[in-house]
Specification:
Structural class of chain B: mainly alpha
CATH architecture of chain A: Orthogonal Bundle
Strand order of the largest sheet of chain A: 1-2
Order of helices and strands of chain B: HHHHHHEEEHHHHEHHHH
CATH topology of chain A: ABC transporter involved in vitamin B12 uptake, BtuC
Largest sheet of chain A: 2 strands, antiparallel
Number of strands of chain B: 4
Helix content of chain B: over 70%
Order of helices and strands of chain A: HHHHEEHHHHHHH
Largest interface: A-B, 48 and 43 residues
Oligomer: heterotrimer
Shape of chain B: globular
Strand content of chain B: under 5%
Largest sheet of chain B: 2 strands, antiparallel
Distance between the termini of chain B: 19 Å
Shape of chain A: globular
Radius of gyration of chain A: 19 Å
Number of domains of chain A: 1
């Protein structure tokens, strides 16, 4: 296999992996304040893409404005979800809350299907479709947008959690909610903020993905599953791990498809993940003993 | 003696209800076939409830285990024309064997990591069903599974299959009731509350977990065999990630650690969509909303809700009925 | 006296209307379609078409003076639900004939039920397995994958291509296409240069295409339904590949051109004549049927017609034709007369059914089209 092909696999893996990573970041944010896995995370990604398409056709405000509107609207969906379905039962057990999030994901899919049907939609690329040549491999500009924005989001989140009071308060909730409350942190507000932030990250992922991969009401299911795999692979609760997990998963799939067998590429990726988990039961960058369920 | 009686009364009532159902439905074969499907799912859910509700171990791989049994009996009886007994026993046996091989390494993982590992296992099996076209028929499915026949009796009517499936549900229920009221059952519950404490009491955690995992896979295996010979057709899409999540939902919605709840959850989630069909485009949304509301307002599931209702009634009338 | 006359008049009216009421008992035809779920892009136009035809037939006085009643169930593209819905049609609604399923998998699953209940089933799915070997009670309207592959390979041969790479989706449609491609490419004296698979929900196929590019084939054949083939078309442009790309008839809808955008330009595919109805010559027998269907469908549903809805159109018109020929609406008579339909002009082609051929179409039901300027261009008829 020549270098150009290997580079092409790498480019594919990084692009796809960034999208998994962004989904995984969303899981991590909510996990960190609530200890639950939000099954509606994939739906946030889907909403970002679909709403951008909807605003483009409906208001025709130009691509940047449509994207902004879509991201804001999805963030509000995150807020509503927390207010309506999580806060009223915040003392319920983790598994019950998880089933609630499954219910939310089904409902969101149903609503999107009702209003905008089951068609696949696409957004125009941010800066054209002309491929850029690099050492024999070709990349389209949208891939660079995806990679770049994923890195920026990751950096901002890292800064947010380690530098700002608000971010550190959110982290505190994850370690010990009762102690956090004692030092005057409103856990409710932090949980609400985490849902908004995670919907925001998901929506950003959705809008940058759609020009490349297209979107429909049901894309969230697969992205949610891959995102979950990515954040477990990287170690739950660690934003850096989630992003890294996403990239590793993407690269495994691309090289698996290119070098071994495209029919079994997902199986190859999951065999490797299983192997890693047996070797490191808390993921690659996770802290051991995060017994929560 | 009286405690045994109190346990047996609901079981007897359950038997009577099952016997009477076809007559209550006035032999409407369509509803009967949906309830047959619900019974098949109830068997898996009973096993999964032992694992999740009592031992506290999650599995997103039970859809795949169910599928392994269904495909094994399909291939053995359909492709190779082996006797049904061979297909059924190998189906359940292979499922248990796979569960044991997977369970040994994987059950060391905890919580979400265990969920991920079992999900990964399920996905790999699912891809195998899709890609091993020569063996499984691939994505378009496996056609030509023979009708079930036991000692010369052919289960080719909906009524006979309904009774067959629900008597298997009863067997599974009795086995599970026996188990949880045994020393073993108490050990499992101890394990759920705290593994460390259970270990210090001398409970061999690894062995207990593996035992329940394999036992629940046997339930899934039996269900898989029943399923394959009922539909006479299997396709990979019935055994995917989606189905595994639905099984977990049935357990939790019915009521964790309540065997009756598990059956109720399976029946509720299988039958409900039939009533929602009337709403067409709103069906999915209503389904989602019902799920959300149930989980929000019935924290102990359907079983917990019914218990609470009963105790309220008792309090109001001021005596034991 | 007046009361007695009135009573008499009433009695006469009851007497006259009684047989009329009996004659007006509806003819029940069932359908199991994937209106939602992954195959909804097929099932939804199929359902719409059946509703359209039902109203049209009833407005014209029904069949044999009896109204047509369509009973349509959505199986959500799930095989369990398809089987249950088939049960409901057979056991509760007691239909005289049925249409469906939408996908090959669902059809194969419900076929045995209809055969043992002795009710004719006309499928809207393409797989050859449905009618080969012939099941006396099962028919299908879509052209077989084999005919689409033959059309593609004839075109490829005329261009002098030798090495053909294939990339197929890992679902029932892709599997059926792959099997036929693997059989017919060598039979046409060509080589299968590469055999790649992608998942129905995959969003990036550059690894597979990169691998294919390394093998340097003369042409690529992609077998899938939206959105996968649109991704592949875009990935091909992204990789700056100029290898000719053939698509299957599974993407013969305008939606595909919209999704693939500029990347669709120059792609070649076999399609039913519905896509190019206005480009057909005036004397083509199908032209009038197609144009009427397109016009009625688009007027009622305010959305673009697709070839997939045509499968249901053909299924129902064939059943209606069989009832008319038989003069009665019993399952046995419908089945027997379906086999005797010849030269029946419908949307998919001109049906020549017989006891040995329960599809009644061959490769002439397809034309080769090229995508040019965002629209279909008839290459060869």
């Amino acid at each position: 296999m020549d270098l150009a092909s290997l580079l092409q696999f790498l480019a594919s893996g990084l692009t796809v992996g960034s999208t998994y990573g962004l989904a995984a970041l969303g899981f991590t944010i909510i996990f960190n304040t609530t200890g639950i896995i939000n099954f509606a995370q994939g739906e946030f990604v889907m909403l970002g893409g679909i709403l951008a398409v909807v605003f483009m056709h409906w208001l025709d405000p130009g691509l940047p404005a449509a994207i902004l509107l879509a991201v804001v609207a999805t963030t509000l969906v995150g807020l509503l979800m927390e207010r309506l379905t999580i806060r009223p039962v915040r003392n319920a057990s983790a598994i019950n809350l998880i089933i609630v999030t499954i219910g939310v994901s089904i409902t969101i899919r149903g609503l999107v299907m009702l209003f905008w049907g089951k068609d696949t939609y696409v957004l125009p690329a941010f800066s054209g479709m002309a491929p850029i040549h690099l050492l024999g491999a070709t990349i389209i500009p949208q891939s660079l947008w995806i990679l770049g924005i994923a890195v920026v989001v990751l950096a901002l989140l890292k800064g947010f959690f380690s530098r700002t009071i608000f971010g550190r308060a959110m982290l505190a909730c994850s370690f010990e909610p009762r102690a956090a409350r004692l030092v005057g942190i409103s856990v409710e507000r932090m949980v609400m903020a985490s849902f908004m932030l995670s919907a925001f990250v998901g929506a950003v992922g959705g809008v940058i993905l759609t020009p490349l991969t297209m979107t429909s009401y049901d894309v969230g299911v697969l992205l949610g599953m891959k995102g979950f795999a990515a954040c477990i692979l990287g170690g739950l609760g660690n934003p850096f791990g989630a992003a890294a997990g996403g990239l590793i998963l993407g690269i495994l799939e691309a090289f698996g498809a290119g070098l071994v067998s495209s029919a079994y590429k997902d199986a190859i990726a999951f065999v490797v993940i299983l192997g890693i988990l047996l070797w490191k039961p808390s993921g690659l960058f996770g802290v051991p003993d995060t017994e929560r369920v | 003696m009286s405690s045994t009686l109190r346990q047996l009364t609901p079981v007897a009532a359950f038997f009577l209800l099952v016997l009477a159902t076809p007559f209550l439905l006035r032999h409407d074969y369509y509803y009967l076939s949906i309830l047959t499907m619900a019974g098949i799912f109830a068997i898996i859910v009973l096993g999964l409830n032992l694992l999740l509700g009592f031992a506290g171990q999650i599995s997103l791989g039970h859809g795949a285990l169910f599928g392994i049994a269904a495909y094994t009996t399909a291939v053995l009886t359909g492709t190779y024309g082996l006797p049904l007994a061979v297909g059924a026993v190998s189906g359940v046996g292979l499922t248990a064997l796979v569960a044991m091989l997977i369970g040994m390494p994987v059950l060391k993982l905890k919580g979400y990591y265990l969920a991920m590992a079992t999900l990964g296992f399920g996905l790999i099996v699912y891809i195998f069903f899709n890609e091993a076209i020569g063996l499984t028929g691939g994505p378009s499915g496996f056609v030509g599974i023979p009708v079930l026949e036991v000692f010369g009796f052919v289960f080719d009517s909906d009524l006979s299959y309904f009774y067959l499936v629900w008597s298997m549900v009863a067997v599974a229920l009795l086995t599970s009731l026996n188990l949880i009221h045994s020393k073993y059952g108490r050990a499992l519950m101890a394990l759920h509350i705290s593994e460390t404490a259970a270990q210090s009491m001398g409970i061999n955690i690894a062995r207990h977990k593996l035992f329940v995992f394999v036992l629940s896979s046997v339930y899934a295996g039996i269900a898989g065999v029943l399923y394959a010979h009922y539909l006479n057709f299997v396709a990979p899409s019935s055994f995917g990630f989606h189905f595994s999540v639905q099984l977990i939902t049935m357990v939790v919605l019915g009521g964790m650690a309540s065997l009756w709840g598990g059956i109720a959850g399976a029946v509720f989630l299988t039958v409900m969509p039939e009533f929602l069909r009337f709403y067409e485009n709103l069906e999915v949304i209503i389904y989602g909303l019902i799920l959300i509301l149930c989980m929000m307002f019935l924290p102990k599931g359907l079983a917990g809700g019914v218990c609470k209702l009963l105790s309220n009634v008792r309090r109001r009338f001021g005596r034991e009925p | 006296m007046i009361t007695r006359i009135l009573f008499f008049a009433l009695a006469v009216m009851v007497f006259i209307s009684a047989p009329a009421a009996k004659a007006a008992e509806p003819i029940k035809v069932g359908a199991v379609l994937s209106v939602s779920g992954p195959a909804s892009f097929l099932g939804e136009p199929e359902r719409n078409t059946l509703l359209l035809l039902q109203d049209k037939i009833n407005a014209q006085g029904g069949i044999l003076g009896r109204p047509l009643e369509m009973i349509i169930y959505d199986d959500e593209t799930e095989v369990n639900k398809a089987v249950l819905a088939a049960d409901r049609l057979l056991k509760r609604d007691r239909v005289v004939a049925a249409i469906g399923g939408t996908t090959s998998g669902n059809t194969l699953a419900i076929m045995p039920k209809f055969a043992s209940a002795r009710i004719p089933l006309v499928s809207c799915a393409a797989a050859e397995k449905i009618v080969k070997p012939v099941n006396p009670w099962v028919f299908k309207t879509p052209q077989s994958d084999r005919h689409a592959v033959i059309k593609i390979l004839e075109h490829a041969k005329s261009q002098g291509y030798k090495n053909i790479a294939i990339i197929t989706v890992s679902d029932g449609f892709g599997q059926a296409g792959r099997e036929v491609l693997m059989e017919l490419i060598p039979a046409h004296g060509m080589n299968v240069a590469a055999d790649e698979i992608y998942g129905p929900k995959d969003t990036d196929m550059t690894p597979q295409l990169t691998k294919i590019r390394g093998l340097n084939p003369d042409a690529i054949v992609c077998w899938g339904t939206n959105p996968g083939p649109a991704v592949i078309a875009r990935n091909r442009v992204q990789l700056a590949m100029d290898t000719p790309l053939y698509m299957s008839h599974g993407v013969a809808s305008k939606r595909f051109i919209e999704l693939a955008g500029d990347a669709a330009e120059g792609l070649i595919l076999p399609a039913g004549r519905l896509a190019v109805a206005d480009q057909l010559s005036e004397d083509h027998p199908q032209k009038a049927v197609l144009q009427a269907y397109i016009q009625e469908y688009e007027a009622r549903f305010n959305t673009e017609v697709s070839t997939f809805g045509g499968y249901a159109y053909d299924a129902l018109t064939l059943i209606v034709e069989a009832v008319r020929r038989a003069g009665e609406a019993t399952p046995q008579a419908i089945r027997d007369h379906l086999e005797e339909i010849h030269g029946f002009v419908a949307t998919g082609g001109i049906f020549e059914l017989s006891a040995e051929d329960h599809n009644g179409l061959d490769e002439r039901a397809f034309v080769i089209v090229r995508i040019a300027g965002g629209d279909w261009e008839l290459v060869s008829d």
